[in-house]
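Input chain follows. Return structure tokens only.
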Amino acid sequence: MFSGSWKESNMNVIELEIPDQNIDIEALQVAFGSLYRDDVLIKPSRVVALLAAACMLQLDGLIQQCGETMKETINAKTVCGYYNSAGTYGLDSVKKKCLEWLLNNLMTHQSVELFKELSINLMKQLISSSNLFVMQVEMDVYTALKKWMFLQLVPSWNGSLKQLLTEADAWFAKRRKDFEGDIAFLESEQGNVFLPVFTHLRLQYIISDLASARIVERDSLIPSEWLSSVYKQQWFAMLRAEQDNDIGTTLGKVQQMEKKPFLSCFLPPWARPQEINKEELEASTMRCGRKLAKDGDYCWRWTGFNFGFDLLVTYTNRYIIFKRNTLNQPCSGSVSLQPRRNIAFRLRLASFDSSGKIICSRTTGYRILTLEKDQEEVVMNLDSRLLIFPLYICCNFLYTSPEKKADSEALPDNSET
């Protein structure tokens, strides 16, 4: 350019038009400098600007270095910026890593700053995923969404995480007084933009607990039509479990897709539950979790009505055990007396470092477990060398078969009908 027959050859100053606002002078200096040296020191605080400059100049080696730096430095402060930049500049592997980090940390390590940065589209992806690492139960996902929505609407709020829920509840309570009739907040002009996120809540596992159902009704965030539909769905599921000998669920295509070992019983045709595939399973499972602060013996259950399947989870001597509990129930109707019950589940364990990066993890994959009355089964045997506390346990469960849909052949052959 400087020695050939070009216009710039006779110019003392050459102006470059930089259309990307992420690019600054310092980023250009480093990007040009990378042409003359093999290694470039990339600071995490400068990586997005340098990535933008490298993409503009089509420096593939530098782009790759930026991507590796981003993967190694994902944390609560950088993850949203990295995710957006990776989408802009086509770094799919970085985008995937950011999404994985958010699925693991959104519920396990909540923060005010992270809630403020999460966009509606990104939150929708997280809430819809069966891989979301839920702590406690689905109601806690609802609570997290309530806090997140409040911070999206009032981004100037600057309190602590402990104060956040109280402030959010007070703010939404004031909004309720402004609405006429029975309109829910998500049906209002302010709340309508958040509808796509809340549609991915698994409401059937929220209304199965009395205290949670009362809070949801009190908040009046969710349209009443949604809740009515879920109440009806759960009522029919309960009737099937009680009167139609539904012994639980089984998986159809999952075994072939994941090639995981399964535990199942041989049943006569009348007793076989309806099969479902992996996609249906992932969209329908109950998401719940537990944090074990230190090594020891633990036994717990997740609250809520689970169609007569009282599942006890025990952690002891490096084993995780599931037990179908049918004794010592508070009332006779709270437990199923079917000789056998099936449950579809996936168990995941993880330990995290201070930045939220997974140190070690284990998973059972999706499996079917068949339990007789008061039978217990070891579902995971842990290597003590891999155990780092605090240990986070996350489970997906499906207790009942999905309701069979009417065959299309049974409908009249009439398009208007």
